[in-house]
Amino acid sequence: MRAEIIAIGDEIITGQRLDTNTQWLAERLTELGVDVAFHTTIGDNLADNVEAFKLAMGRVDVVVATGGLGPTADDLTRESIAAAAGVGLVRDEASLTYIRQLFDRRGRTMPERNAVQADFPEGATAIPNEHGTAPGVELHVDRADRLPCSVFALPGVPAEMRPMWEQTVAPAIASARGEARVIRHRRIKCFGVGESQLEAMLPDLIRRGREPSVGITVSDATITLRITAAGPDDDACRRAMEPTAATIYEILGTIAYGEEEDELEDVDSRLLVNRHQTVAVAEWATGGLVSEWLAKAAPVESVLAGGFLIGSLKQLEQLTGEPALRDAAPSDSLVATTAAEWVRRTIGADYGIGVAAFPPIQNGGAAKLCISIAGPDRTRRLQFDSATHPAIRQARAAKQALNALRLVLLARDLPEETQAPL
Predict the structure, then answer these.
(1) Looking at the structure, do residues 171 and 242 belong to the same domain, yes or no?
(2) φ/ψ (deg, to 5) at 129
(3) The domain containing residue 61 runs over which residues?
């Protein structure tokens, strides 16, 4: 069973309002085992709406639309569905009575314009709306070559739409499905290589048509592998995904650092909490992101002993009393090492992270960011490739520092004064 979600409204198509309904409905449909094939967004134009519904009715089994069920002239969903299905509009007296009573309970007189909310495409049934004046629409459209297409239209107001989905639409779709089927995802988070390199490491897993499927997405240099399986229940999906997940972990090793909502700072915090240890940070290029993320990762039992933001060599020299900094460049390894050892010693933490300034050359092989990790036994002096898009440079650098700490805590070797994992 395939579905299309249609979001209607000029405020959405022009970017004035964020469409959260489509995301929410996509998640709910997937939970029911329905494959969401299309997301469509259209404005308040009758011809465009009719065309969109006609197209959807022809290519999917379930259409769920939000918006356009109000009483004003730009609310066109009822009329659009009727035209797309080739039927007329009829007034439902029971719905009209309910709308009038709702106004009465609120101590108001119903404007006559609201009567159009009781108009339905011929053959449709009303979806009750306990929280608003706009009933939803349920219509099953016959098709010559296959089963009917089920069309559900709901208000755009989430507080009205969501209860209507739970009480009426979801049970109707589940009943139409007949055989029990759910779709579940498992997300494995990775850091340390580029997207194409990681895909090359897992050639068979990413191929199209594989079951379970594995998708790959990237956000700020974090790669997410999404395993998707369908089955009769959650346990069946989990069992189907487990061999694929095991293969990913076996091949990628420490590149795969966590799952679902895990970020690198979450993993670092758990490792430090389990070891009853703390970390202090002195950072320049990362602009305080490392400290900020670590502080948020463990708000109750903080593993962040302290943090400093470096803004100049003069400031760092005054803090550390290190005269050699006078002849250093802001991006030198000496800056990162001095900062890491000083902040660890001064704060009394088990580990210190020092991040130097970005190099003056931002692209090419010479663009290296120096990060040092000072620990109880030694200080590791690391260099990382910093050539990347300017929009993610700072976030990527912060993740490089957090990933370096993670590997140190896991007792993994890191190549020093050379390019370490990204």
Answers:
(1) no
(2) -125, 100
(3) 2-177
d(CA 347, CA 307): 9
Measured N-to-C along each axis, helices 289-297 and 393-409 cross at an angle, to the nearest 10 degrees, of 60
Domain final position from 235, 259, 283: 259
Residue-wise pLDDT for 255-267, tens only, equals: 999 999 999 999 9
Do 377 and 300 belong together in one domain? yes
Is the distance from CB of 316 to CB of 335 less than 8 angstroms? yes
pLDDT in tens, 225-242: 999 998 888 899 999 999
Query: What does the pLDDT read at residue 245?
Result: 95
Q: Is residue 422 part of a domain?
A: no
Tell whether 244 and 324 lie within a shared domain. no
**pLDDT of 301:** 65
Q: How many domains does the chain have?
A: 3
Q: Which of 240, 337, 232 is nearest to 282 (CA)?
A: 337
- Quick one: 141 and 216 in the same domain? no
C-alpha pair distances (Å), 248 with each of 220, 255, 345: 21, 10, 39
- Do the bridges between strand 213-219 and strand 119-121 make them parallel or antiparallel, or are there none, so unpaired? unpaired
Tokens of 284: 């320049």
Q: What is the pLDDT at residue 417?
A: 54
Residues lower than pLDDT 50 in the chain: 418-422
Percent of the chain as helix, strand, coil, to the nearest 5: 40, 25, 35
Residue-wise over 342-369: b if at least 16 C-beta within 10 A, else e? bbbebbebbbbbbbbbbbeeeeeeebbb
Residue 141 domain flag: yes
